[in-house]
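Dear support,

I submitted the protein below through the web form. The confirmation email said the job was done, but the results page showed an empty box. After a refresh the structure appeared. I'm attaching both so you can tell me whether what I see now is the final result or a partial one.
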Amino acid sequence: MIENYLKIGVFSILRLTPGSLGAKSDSRFYWALRKVRLKKTRRIFDEELAKLDRDATCIDLGANVGKITEVLLTKVGRVYAFEPDPWSFSQLEEHLGQNERAILLNKAIGSKDGVLKLYRDPTFEANREIRSQGTSAYYSESWGLGEPEAFQVEMIDICRFLREVSGPIEILKMDIEGAELDVLERLLDAPEKDMVKTIFVETHEAQMPQLRVRTKALRNRIRNLKQPRIFMNWQ
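What the results page shows now:
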């Protein structure tokens, strides 16, 4: 932990340097900051989950192969798990398809209904389980070299979906590789936000520089928000 604080201090200075050194240091600054923030958020998640029971409903956006969906199902009665990547969804179905309390959807959640174009890490085939976690609508500095594979998926408006779900959402976990900004900006401007009690969201400004200004603005916006409570340091 001390090492990460030292990195934050060093990179906060170097990121002001012009050129490639400044750009690389800026990314490293955000990575170090992220590592410092993570531990507290997971502890809060565990505490919130422990309060729930079989009457509760949760949503997992960006379920990937279902690890967090499975954790949620140990406590709550129903989990809606969204995973747009076809390969990841096939693993999710294999893992949790027989669980009647898991509603699995091979779709994306967004700020409107429509079609979303996604891209896979160019090194996806080398390690599908790891690299599938980076499938995104945005270019990521974490991708390997090569041309990303593109595909399209159905996208559902977050507010419309919430209206169709009966009862409140106790926990909404969101790891959707940059699209979290579109979803949260849409949700926070709508009355449906009151249907969600707690949101745990992974932000991606460390590997997606194009999202840094919007992410900072969103962090400032939610600072004093009472509902939903939003924790933006998930991993």
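Response: this is the final, complete result; the empty box was a page-load delay. Residues 65 and 175 are 12 Å apart (CA to CA).
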